[in-house]
C-alpha cells in the first residue's frame, strides 16, 4: 500500500495532469486515505513552508535575467559571435546553434527556454539555408541540453539545495561537462554535414581582426556568467544576490550599451518571470510534499538498501543509476525529475563514496539527455510544437545527437577528475 502514491503519480501524469498536481494529489491521497497518522493540515503546512527558503529567490531572479537578456540584445550579440566563430565549419548554422546554446547556458539557465528561443531565432534561418526542418529541430533540442549544465543553470541551484553542497562549486563544476557535450555535438554535426553536403554559412574562417572586433562587441554579454562565478568565489554576494545582480547587469547593458531595452519591455519581462517562476516553484513545493511522504515511509532508505544489495561495486552502481536517471528524464521535466530522484539516489552515492558534486553533474546530464529522448522528452515537445515538425520526423534525426551526448555522459560518469578539476581549485 505504501507504494501506491508512486504509481499514482505516473498514472496522473500520463493522463495529462501537470506534474505538480500529480505529485501533490498522490501525496495528499496517501495521508488522507492510506495513513491517517499525519494530520492533513500539517501536510498542507509543508506545502507552504517549502517556499520559505532564501536560496529559492535565486530562481525568479535568474529567470528574469534570461528574459531581460532576450529583449536587451544580448542574445543577438552572442549569436553574432557564434556565427563568427563557427560559421565556416561544415554545417555552419547547426554549429552556430550548438555554440549559442553553450554561451546562452550561463544566462538563460533553462533547457526549455533555450530550446524555445532558438526554435524561433535559428530554425527559420536554418530552413532558409536548406537544412531540413526535422534536422534543424533535432539539433536545436539537442544543443538546449547544454544550457542547464553551464552555470548558472537553475537545476544546479536545486541540486545544491537538495544535496546540501556549495552552489558555487556546482556552478564551477558545470563548465567542463557542458563544453564536453558541446564538443561531441559539434563533431556529430560536422560528420552529418559532410555526409549530406550541408554548406558553411561563411566562405572562409573569420580573420583574427573580425573575431576580436566581434568579441569586444559581445564582451558585455560574455562577462555575465564569469562575473557571477568570480563574485561567488570571492564572497562578494550569495547565489540569490547574484541573480539580482544579473538582472541589474542585463538592464544596464540593454538600456545604455546596446540600447535595445525600453520601458515597453517591462511588461513582457515581468510576465515571463511570473510564468516561469510559478511553474518551477509550484513543482518544487509539490515535490517537497511528495518527499515528505517518501521520508515518512522511509522509501529512500529502502531503495538504497535494495540497490546496495544488488551491487556494492561503484562503477556498476553508476551504470545502474544512469539507466534509471535516463528513464526518468524521458518521463519528467528537468526540475521535477531532479526534485523526485535526487533525494532518493544521493544517499546511495554518498554511501559508495561518490563525490556529491560529481554525482550532481551525472544526474543533471542524464536528465537533460532524457529531455530530448522519446517518448516524453520535454525539449523534444517544445521544439516540435514551435517548429511544427512531426515527432516521428524528429525522432529519425535526433538519434545521432543522443548518441553523442551519451558518450559525453560516459566520460562525465567514469572520469570524475575531469568534473572535479575546477571545483577542487576553490
TrEMBL record:
Main location: membrane
Gene Ontology MF terms in the entry: transmembrane transporter activity
Lineage: superkingdom: Bacteria
UniProt membrane topology term: Multi-pass membrane protein
Cellular component per GO, a single term: plasma membrane
Transmembrane segments: 6-33, 94-113, 134-162, 174-193, 214-236, 242-261, 273-295, 315-345, 357-378, 398-422
Alphabetical keyword list: Cell inner membrane, Cell membrane, Membrane, Transmembrane, Transmembrane helix, Transport
Location(s), subcellular: Cell inner membrane
Residue stretches making up the TRAP C4-dicarboxylate transport system permease DctM subunit domain: 7-417
InterPro entries tied to this protein: DctM, TRAP_DctM
Keyword Transmembrane helix among UniProt keywords: yes
Subunit structure: The complex comprises the extracytoplasmic solute receptor protein and the two transmembrane proteins.
Function: Part of the tripartite ATP-independent periplasmic (TRAP) transport system.
Family the UniProt entry places it in: Belongs to the TRAP transporter large permease family.
Name of this chain's protein: TRAP transporter large permease protein
Source organism of this protein record: Thalassotalea algicola
Amino acid at each position: 500500500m505504501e507504494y501506491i502514491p508512486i504509481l499514482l503519480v505516473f498514472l496522473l501524469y500520463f493522463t495529462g495532469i501537470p506534474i505538480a498536481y500529480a505529485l501533490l494529489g498522490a501525496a495528499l491521497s496517501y495521508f488522507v486515505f492510506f495513513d491517517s497518522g499525519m494530520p492533513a493540515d500539517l501536510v498542507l503546512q509543508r506545502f507552504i513552508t517549502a517556499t520559505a527558503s532564501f536560496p529559492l529567490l535565486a530562481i525568479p531572479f535568474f529567470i528574469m535575467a534570461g528574459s531581460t537578456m532576450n529583449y536587451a540584445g544580448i542574445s543577438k550579440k552572442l549569436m553574432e559571435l557564434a556565427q563568427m566563430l563557427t560559421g565556416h565549419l561544415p554545417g555552419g548554422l547547426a554549429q552556430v546553434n550548438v555554440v549559442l546554446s553553450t554561451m546562452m547556458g550561463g544566462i538563460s539557465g533553462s533547457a526549455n527556454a533555450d530550446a524555445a528561443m532558438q526554435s524561433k531565432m535559428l530554425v527559420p534561418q536554418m530552413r532558409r539555408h536548406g537544412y531540413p526542418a526535422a534536422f534543424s529541430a533535432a539539433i536545436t533540442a539537442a544543443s538546449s541540453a547544454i544550457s542547464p549544465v553551464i552555470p548558472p543553470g537553475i537545476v544546479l541551484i536545486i541540486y545544491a539545495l537538495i544535496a546540501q553542497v556549495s552552489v558555487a562549486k556546482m556552478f564551477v563544476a558545470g563548465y567542463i561537462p557542458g563544453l564536453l557535450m558541446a564538443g561531441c555535438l559539434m563533431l556529430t554535426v560536422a560528420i552529418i554535414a559532410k555526409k549530406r553536403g550541408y554548406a558553411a554559412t561563411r566562405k572562409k574562417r573569420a580573420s583574427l581582426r573580425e573575431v576580436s572586433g566581434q568579441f569586444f562587441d559581445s564582451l558585455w554579454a560574455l562577462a555575465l556568467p564569469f562575473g557571477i562565478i568570480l563574485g561567488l568565489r570571492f564572497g562578494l554576494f550569495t547565489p540569490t544576490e547574484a541573480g539580482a545582480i544579473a538582472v541589474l547587469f542585463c538592464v544596464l547593458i540593454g538600456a545604455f550599451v546596446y540600447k535595445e531595452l525600453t520601458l515597453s519591455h517591462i511588461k513582457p519581462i515581468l510576465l515571463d518571470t511570473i510564468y516561469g517562476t510559478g511553474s518551477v516553484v509550484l513543482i518544487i513545493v509539490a515535490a517537497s510534499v511528495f518527499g515528505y511522504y517518501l521520508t515518512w515511509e522511509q522509501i529512500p532508505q529502502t531503495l538504497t538498501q535494495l540497490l546496495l544489495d544488488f551491487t556494492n561495486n561503484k562503477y556498476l552502481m553508476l551504470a545502474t543509476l544512469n539507466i534509471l536517471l535516463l528513464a526518468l528524464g524521458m518521463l519528467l521535466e528537468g526540475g521535477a525529475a531532479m526534485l523526485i530522484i535526487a533525494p532518493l539516489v544521493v544517499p546511495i552515492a554518498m554511501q559508495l563514496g561518490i563525490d556529491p558534486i560529481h554525482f550532481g553533474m551525472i544526474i543533471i546530464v542524464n536528465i537533460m539527455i532524457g529531455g530530448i529522448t522519446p517518448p516524453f522528452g520535454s525539449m523534444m515537445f517544445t521544439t516540435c510544437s514551435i517548429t511544427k515538425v512531426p515527432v516521428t520526423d524528429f525522432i529519425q534525426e535526433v538519434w545521432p545527437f543522443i548518441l553523442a551526448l551519451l558518450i559525453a555522459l560516459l566520460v562525465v560518469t567514469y572520469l570524475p577528475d575531469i568534473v572535479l578539476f575546477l571545483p577542487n581549485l576553490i
